[in-house]
Structure formats: structure tokens, C-alpha cells
Amino acid sequence: MKKIILTALVAVASLSANAQVWLGGDLGFGFTKANKDAKTANTITVAPEIGYMFSENWGVYADLSLQSSKAGVEGAKAKTSFGFDVAARWVFAKSGIASFFLDGGVGADFYNNEGGSVFDVKIQPGVKFEASDHISVVAKIGGIGAAFANEKAQANGFDKTAFGLNVNNTALNLGVYYSF
Predict the structure, then answer these.
(1) Which of 17, 31, 65, 101 has its CA 20 to 30 A from that of 54?
(2) Residues 163, 146 contacting (CB under 8 angstroms)
(3) Comparing 12-21, 84-93, 117-126, which segment has the lowest mean pLDDT?
(4) Which of 93, 84, 101 is CA-nearest to residue 139?
(5) Which residue pairs from 24-32 have beta carbons closer than 8 angstroms and sit at least 24 positions apart in sequence?
(6) Contact 65/81 with Cβ under 8 angstroms?
(7) Which pTM value belongs to this model?
(8) What's the rounded Cα separation, in Å, for the pair 101 and 104?
């Protein structure tokens, strides 16, 4: 029994020695115009994040997001959404100050004005650049996944089920993390 307890303590201590907690997130602004005569549509996103690396290669995180969008179409209502994601992070390669990873997780977005809810499952690639021992910059781009909208969201223009690969410059997220 003593050997089992001692082994468990050593395992916990070794995990704690590699542990790293991070705080950070994304702040996003988007402005689009369909043509020269159209009004500008804009989107603002705030998404704080907290994560925990329990080894050099594995971690978990959760984030919250608040997004406000105003369409460039006359008379269209602004949309506000609140969402969350929980995911696991796998760091598969390191080179100098860069770490390459895949995030895999689930999330949900809830829209105002009876806009409904959209649930998603995704895998998203990313890279982390360590600027110092405590500060890093993270970029995530697109990903592969599926989204499922409830009836209210479908009535407001969301597809019932969507599957896809989204890797382009409009799907780029940048964030800053503080690790301790």
C-alpha cells in the first residue's frame, strides 16, 4: 500500500513540475463591404481563455466569447452572441521558440433576438511563439469540424448541419497569453 501511495505522489509531483497555467485570449475586429455602394458590416469579438498544460505535450483549456455583429444591409438587426469552448491541446512539434499544436474540442454559441443556438465540434491547428518566459503569441487558423443549429437558429439563416474544412486568411485568430 505504501508503494502505491508513494508512486501516486511521485506521479503527481512530476505532473506538477511540468504544469503551466495560461491566461489570455483573442480580441477581434472585422469590417467588410460587399461593394462600393453597400454599408460596412462590422464584427467585434472578445474571447478570454484559461488553460492548463499538464505535460509538455498535453493540455486543456476553456474560453468564453462575446461577439457583436452589425450587418451592412439596411434594416438588419445587430446580432450578439455568447459562447464557450472546451478543448484539449496536443503539442506535436517544437522548434526554438515555436510550438505547433492541434486543439480539439466542443463549443456552443447562443444568439440574442431569439436567434437560437449553434453547437460545434472542431479540430484547429495553431502555433505558439514564446516572446519571453511568461508572454507568448498564439495564432490559430481555420480547422475542420461540424456545426449543428437548433430550429431557432435555422429560422435565422444557419444551416441545420454543416461540415467543413476552413483554412483561409479570414479564419485567422491571434491571441496573447500570459503563462505562470
Answers:
(1) 65
(2) yes
(3) 12-21
(4) 101
(5) 24/48, 24/49, 24/138, 24/175, 24/176, 24/177, 24/178, 25/49, 25/63, 25/175, 25/176, 26/173, 26/174, 26/175, 28/173, 32/72
(6) yes
(7) 0.76
(8) 10
